[in-house]
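FAQ
Q: What does a multi-component entry look like?
A: The components come first, one per line:
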Amino acid sequence: MTVGAPEIGPAGLRLMSAVPDRVFMTDNSGHDALTLIEEVIEKGGDIPEDLPGSPEDQEKLKRILGKIHEMHSFVSRMSEGDLDAKLSFRGYIAGPLKALQSSLRHLTWQAKMIAEGDLSQRVDFMGDFSLSFNRMVANLADNRDQLISRKEELERSYVALSQANNKLNILSSITRHDILNHVMVIVNYCFLLKEVITDPKLKKQLEAIEFSGKEIQHLIEFTRSYQDLGVLEPMWQRIPVIFTNPTISGLVKDITVQLPDQCYEIFADQMLVKVMYNLVENSIRHGGGVNEIRISYVDEQSLLRIIYEDNGSGISADEKEKVFKRGYGKNTGLGLFLIREILSITDITIKETGTPGKGVRFEMTVPEKYFRRCGS
Amino acid sequence: MGQSRKYEFKWELLGDIEKGRPNLGNTTRLEVYRLMQYTLRDVLEQRYGDEEADKIFREAGKLSGREFFHHLLSGCTGMHDFIRKFQESLRELGIGILRVEEADEISGSFILTVAEDLDCSGLPELNYPVCTFDEGFIRGILEEMTGNEYEVREVDCWCTGDRTCRFEANVRSS
Ligand SMILES: [Zn+2]
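Then the predicted structure of the entire assembly, as tokens:
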């Protein structure tokens, strides 16, 4: 062997000078040790049982190889994102490795702070990385500030709109009241006049006036229901909870109501209770002896279907779409039309898909962003 | 202790530097600071032994940490704000580059590193950490900030071959 062969390098030389000379002079153990070290550095592998050299050298070699293994596992763990590895020794090589780990731990912490919304943190003296990182955080902070001010603007607009809406409501409420008073006069006089007029032609005309008067009353009543639509912000609601509302529970005293087992929350206008009320009322009024109402869900991931069914007479094919027209049917007139309007505020659609003669089946389709499983 | 002490620390003892040093200004070479620190240490060790000397340094560090907090870090709005200001002030005053590796707000534990530390960076390698003054300094600051009693230990130091000083700070269990 040649001691200090050029390919051994300075670390090897230092190692050799630390080992008593005679070891190298008398046998090949020094050479074997260096080969082993090189092998472990390049290929890894376990530390062999039979190490070359004297017991003292073997101990030393074991320590060196142990340190190589330890550094390997330290760096490997770090590269896998595990920053908790410890090195049992210090010094020339361990120092920078620990410094690298320290920097990564610090960055992890900084990133965590940012994730928690603290955008005041900055990274110093880490070269280009600091620059990019700090710029990114500054941009995030900028964007956040912009979003906040946009949100505040929107909130102000919302308040202004609500106020305007309130005023309009007051105005229309007064107007409605006044109109109804006048219409009542017309209808009442028609009623009285019908008693005294005998000319059939005049009587017919009078009935037409009375009919129109009553239509006006219906329309005005309808605008009253319509006025609350969209006034309050939509909110997350549960249908079973809605059915505990006294107006509905009073209505279904003699009806078996089957509510779904799964729990969902639906983001809808606060008049959702009116939707359910009108559906139930519709069943009772037009179903012809409905005594069973079922509500169920069909979760299709990207949308949720709410199914409302009863065991009444159902809706004939040619009426399925007409029932949603404003002024359709007597008494209700506004019922199903209003339901569709209320639901449409949060993009929920409704259609009737039942089999005539076997009860109604209203299918309400809720888009993904407006429903969620309870507790999620 | 007597009624009036000769050297009881007051921030005012740092003096009006602007007035006092119109030409030389408020900076000096780091060697000067270290010259004072390490000669003082030498004398303290000779007189009281190394353990006692370290203790004195920690105690002085703690006092300086407390004063530092009150004069430069008070008015922090929370832990995050505190850490940011702490980092900023150490950088601006050239004390070191403070980095947080861990800050557990519930247990109150911290792992901090100080790179380019005022006391030890560039010193010859020894077998032991030397930043006892820093240990006290960090302790004083954390105690003032949180109201808890702290134990601060330097686990890695320039002098032990690590290029950055690492401090573990834990709330002392009473
Ligand atoms: Zn140190």
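Q: Is there any commentary attached?
A: Sometimes. For this entry: The radius of gyration of chain B is 17 Å.
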